[in-house]
Amino acid sequence: MRTFRALLLAAPAWAVLAAAASAQEPPAGQVADLGEVIVTGTPFGVTDRASLLAVEVLDEEALAIAPASTLGDLVSGLPGVRSTAFSPGASRPVIRGLSGPRVQVLTNGLGMIDASSVSPDHQVAVDPAEARRIEIVRGPSTLVFGGSAIGGVVNIIDDRIPTEPAEGGVDGHVSAQYSSVDDGRSFGARLKANAGPVILSLDAFTRDASDYDVPVFPESALLLAEEGEAPGEERSVANTFVKLDQVGAGLSWIGSRGFIGASVKHVETTYGVPGHEHEADPLAPDAAAEGVSIGLEQTRYDLRGELDFDAGPFSAARLSAGWADYAHTEFEGDEVGTQFFSEGGEGRLELIQRQRGGWQGVIGAQLLDRTFDAVGDEAYVPRTAIAEQGLYTVQRYDRGDLGVEGGVRVDERSLESAAAKRDFTSVSASAGVFLRPSDSWFLGLSAARNERAPSEVELFAEGPHAATGAFEVGDIDLDSEIATSIEGTVHFGAGRFEADLHAYHADYEGFIDLRPTGAEDADSGLPVFEYVQTDARFRGFEAEAEVRLWEDGDRSLVLSGAADWVRASSDLGPVARIPPWSATAGLDWTSRRLDAGIEVRHVGEQDRTAAFERPTDSYTLVNLKGAVRPFADRDVTLFAEVHNLADAEAREHASFQKDIAPLPGRNLRVGVTYRF
Prior knowledge:
Blueprint: H1 2-22, E1 37-38, E2 46-47, E3 54-58, H2 60-64, H3 71-75, E4 81-83, E5 93-95, E6 103-107, E7 110-111, E8 133-138, E9 152-157, E10 170-179, E11 184-195, E12 198-209, H4 221-227, E13 242-255, E14 258-279, E15 289-308, E16 314-332, E17 335-353, E18 359-375, E19 384-398, E20 402-417, E21 421-435, E22 441-452, H5 456-460, E23 462-465, E24 470-473, E25 481-494, E26 497-520, E27 527-552, E28 555-570, E29 573-574, E30 582-590, E31 594-603, E32 619-628, E33 635-643, E34 667-675
Parallel strand pairs: 6-9, 24-27
Antiparallel strand pairs: 1-2, 3-8, 4-5, 6-7, 8-9, 10-11, 10-34, 11-12, 12-13, 13-14, 14-15, 15-16, 16-17, 17-18, 18-19, 19-20, 20-21, 21-22, 22-25, 23-24, 25-26, 26-27, 27-28, 28-29, 28-30, 30-31, 31-32, 32-33, 33-34
């Protein structure tokens, strides 16, 4: 804490130095960058074509016709991104082969205050349907969010706290869709209305889906061979239903120099967990197994505000704060099983420096206070109090043809349970340089050193964990995980052609890994896995390109392609559940009234596996999509999609469930959206 207090006292000095540096005029004028402004990781805003970060964006137009699904499944397939694919009710993003506590899922820049990073069968307490925009940042150079973002960030940006008045006094969005593969139905609506400077927002969303269909018997051929069994006739994955209801409301006062607002959201979800079963009677081994379902409930309150300054070294101050009460109950049939609770708050204050002569930056502080608890037979992690304080700055100087960017962050993190109390001081830093040899090219090279303190599970776990099929044992003596990385960035755009390339290499010192011991727990019969530290290396790339083959006014024909690859090794062998390479090609027609497209995605086999891990075969998915806007004077869109047209067997290697729950088979999805 002494380190943190000293840095807080030094904050005014940081501000003076940053202001002095920003007052220096560059020898050349600023060159305006074209592209979409990204706020995740760079609060002062940088366009995607001028960013050293690897960023993907799902905007409001794309989200309006996106599938009703969990967050992990929605973003899966973007370059460098996959899903844990545990079930249709629970899937988190996997970024560059990393998941769990190494990938931060945020709502408007703040943490979820849920238990989704504790276990892969725990749902993220946010639904993509509430998003107006989703930004996915790949890689560790996200100092704004601390060590828990050592793998990347997925930021859900909504408009529940309005920052701008409604267009025409009232605006909104209504959508409905149906999917055949799971008899799924969803409906959502948003409304924003003005009352002078006061803006009200309301939103609601509901989703109901049954068990989903698959092209083959759910168990993989490898698993059946090990069990000495033949495939059955079943062509659906049992216990994969989902039911979700969510409501939210927000209120803002918007003035000439900023805004202040508050919101509340309540979400209730019930979903099945495939393969996670318990015997109906422990004294009767032959009794029928009961499926496990999970009931999740969270109420969350948020406060956000921004004040613009007329003069001085800073142009704006931003405040964000959130508090949530989260409960997660596992039901064994109708009986209450293990329960997980998370309650706490998080806050962030940022001072945005006034841009002068190509210099811009931010200074910020972040506070977190959260309590995690578990009760029941699978309460393998004791009650833990978690507190964290962070101080950071990110600076960027861009003179047009040449620029530099860098930052530093210091965190104090405390985790206290009945088992032990651990305190960690983490220091992270990044630096990069970029060039624009011509208007068409942006070339960047960045390096980062990031520290991540161990999570409560990695430190204190001791007990059976059915979701991972292991008896997990933590280590209270774990040190912080340190990643040293380097990444090259290329953006190119000229005429009708655009391309992006990111290549990276990361060395992990003290990589925290869950490894088998070879022993078996006497009570549960599960293999014993322990959290250990080793050195690891991750390297890979992501590439995207598109060419506008033909265009005339608002009509265009675009050919696009993308590919990614990651390889991860440690001193103990290959890292588990690393996704194989993938390549995607698409052809899209867009016009004012009609959009249509075809996509072919191939995912390679993965036979480079860790102990107790089975390989997966390659697969190819063919997807068709179309959208029609039938009315010239009304913003109505009718859309349809056929996913997995060939009904191919596909198994996500990053999933613990890949051998019992393949990805859904052929699916026809139809829907309608109306904006007003």
